[in-house]
Amino acid sequence: MNRISTLLTLALAFFCFLPSKAHPGQLVVQTTDGKKFFLMVDNREQNHRPASRVEVNDLGRMKYRVSVRFENPRMGVFGWDDVQVRNDYRSIYHLVPTRRGYVLDLMREEPIRRHQTPPRNPRRPSGPQAVCSEPMDRDEFQRVMTVLDRSTFDSDKMEVLKRTLSRKCVGSRQVRRMAQQLSHESNKVKFAKKAWLQVTNPESYEQVLEVFSFRSSVREMRQFMYNNPRNTYPDHDYDQDDARGGHYDQDDASCQAPQQPRNPRGPRKATLLTVDQEEMRFVVRKLRGMPNDFKRMDYLEHFLDDHAMTSNQVARIMSNLDHESNKVKIAKQAYTQVQDPHGYDVVLQQLQFQNSRRELRAFIRNGNHF
User: Fold this and answer.
1) pTM summary value
2) All CATH 2.60.40.2630 domain ranges in the chain, comma separated
3) What residues are paired with 199 via a beta bridge?
4) Residues 146, 52: contact at Cβ < 8 Å?
5) 25-111: what fold?
6) pLDDT tens, residue by residue, 147-200
7) If 0-12 CB within 10 Å is exposed, 13-18 middle and 19+ buried, where does residue 357 land?
């Protein structure tokens, strides 16, 4: 009897002290000069379109053969043996240009945060009254936006959005940003309806209606929200011609959407994201890769909706714009949520003409609304 109890004790101790199962690692390769490339791991191409940053998941071994082929054929192909990827870590490598070509430099290894699976399925609500508590985090949302940006056709983007909504809850601001990536009005309405049923903050869903171009789309969406109520959504008169959220109607160009003055310096500023040095470099590279100010302005206006920058950062992004009028517009929008308004003189120095400086000073002096 004593022998049996001793064996059971040893067996229990053995299983208790077994090491936890290791999870596959991740490999991240990115260029420091913004050059786009194709990444091959063990002779398998990982990205079908050239990119300046490529992530590879679920790498279970310790060492791999890695090679890159740049978008520009003149830059050639570079390869490295025995590239290390540790389990449970994200290994971030930089492609650094040298006189003899490129070298692969390990910048850092950071542990991969693994989320415990909750007892209940958090992926999507079971009905319109179900509540999503948390939207997807910033990193995951940025990955979704990157995939959407690289997709050409609306059909591909809708597949990406469908998969995203099947796995995650979303916030109203995230829904608006994703809907803006769609070209066709009908797809925007379809996506907005599906996202409404699992949005984490339905009380803020009015901002999603701003992506629609026609009043008929706004009315259709309002009717859908009325028929599928969420507990926190305020009542509206859906029979009225309310153009809020639309820009104009094709049949009546005089129906301009009323512009609500916004002042993110108040309570909204606490929800804005700050811009660190690495993200600032990414924004500048993206601006420099755009062909004209039209593309740059569209990107910056959306970016500033979510981020609070410093005065020096605002001046830096303004230096990448060509037209003075666009610089003034971005300076006004950024000032309403800048972290250090007392240092905004550095932004004024980016303006070439005296009348532009006077316009910005008057804006700062007269209310700070945009």
Assistant:
1) 0.34
2) 25-111
3) 170
4) no
5) Immunoglobulin-like (2.60.40)
6) 898 888 888 899 999 988 888 888 888 999 999 999 888 899 999 999 998 888
7) middle
